[in-house]
Design goal:
Elements (H helix, E strand, L loop, with lengths): L1 E8 L16 E2 L2 E2 H10 L4 E7 L4 H10 L7 E4 L4 H9 L6 E7 L7 H10 L5 E7 L4 E4 L4 E4 L5 E3 L3 E4 H10 L8 H7 L5 E4 L10 H10 L1
Parallel strand pairs: 1-4, 1-6, 4-5, 7-12
Antiparallel strand pairs: 2-3, 6-11, 7-10, 7-11, 8-9
Helix pairs in contact: 5-6
């Protein structure tokens, strides 16, 4: 099977608080996104699709030139929301393939995990890495809050991996903007999600302290 990796990097990074997109920030001397793409480049027979905002394409080209970054990849212009950006990336993928979707700001994902989810996706329609919750958790709304059994709560990560037909059908038939991750969209279409063990180091860089942690871990 042909394999694809859609790497999402079209966010604005507003929660970092400095107005500069987090995917382009420095991590050990190079942009965060370089580390992420290089992890996927180590997987054989894989085509990388990088989803960017239109206003960031010049910046990206300048960074690639500055750092002599030459990992082969296609650039796709994202949409207004995460699901819309995924859909733009899916349009570049062919049928009869396996497609992984990954947050560009998860640069510490291991090649071992990436290879594992592609392997599992050969026998499962949808594969998602997850970690058990270690903290006490509560369900909260405006009226009350209730304790949940943390043994039944898992923290979901990316890359999330799917057979192409599975995710094509889901994205074509579900109101995608109501969801925050691809597994939820696929499950809404009636497909079971196979959970596999994720990695503690596979953090998502969202806030300034996350970047500090990533620098220590890397």
């Amino acid at each position: 099977m042909r394999n694809y990796a859609i790497i999402l990097a079209s966010g604005e990074g507003s929660r970092m608080g400095n107005g500069f997109p987090k995917q382009f920030m420095d991590l050990k001397g190079r942009p965060v996104l370089f580390h992420t793409i290089e992890k996927f480049s180590q997987v054989k027979h894989l085509e990388i699709i990088l989803v960017l905002r239109l206003v960031h394409t010049t910046l990206w080209n300048d960074l690639c030139f500055k750092y002599s970054f030459s990992v082969p990849h296609k650039i796709c212009i994202g949409g207004n929301t995460r699901p819309q950006s995924v859909k733009k990336g899916l349009a570049l993928c062919k049928k009869g393939s396996i497609i992984a979707i990954h947050d560009g700001v998860r640069p510490l994902v291991s090649t071992k995990l990436i290879n594992k989810i592609y392997t599992l996706a050969k026998t499962h329609d949808a594969v998602v890495p997850a970690l058990p919750c270690r903290d006490s958790v509560r369900l909260f709304n405006s009226k009350k809050n209730l304790p949940l059994n943390r043994n039944e709560v898992f923290m979901i990560q990316t890359p999330q991996c799917f057979k192409s037909e599975t995710i094509f059908e889901a994205y074509n038939n579900i109101q995608i903007d109501d969801f925050t991750d691809d597994a939820s969209i696929v499950q809404k279409s009636g497909v079971s999600i196979f959970l596999t063990e994720g990695e503690k180091e596979n953090i998502k860089i969202t806030f300034p302290e996350d970047l500090k942690i990533a620098n220590c871990l890397i």
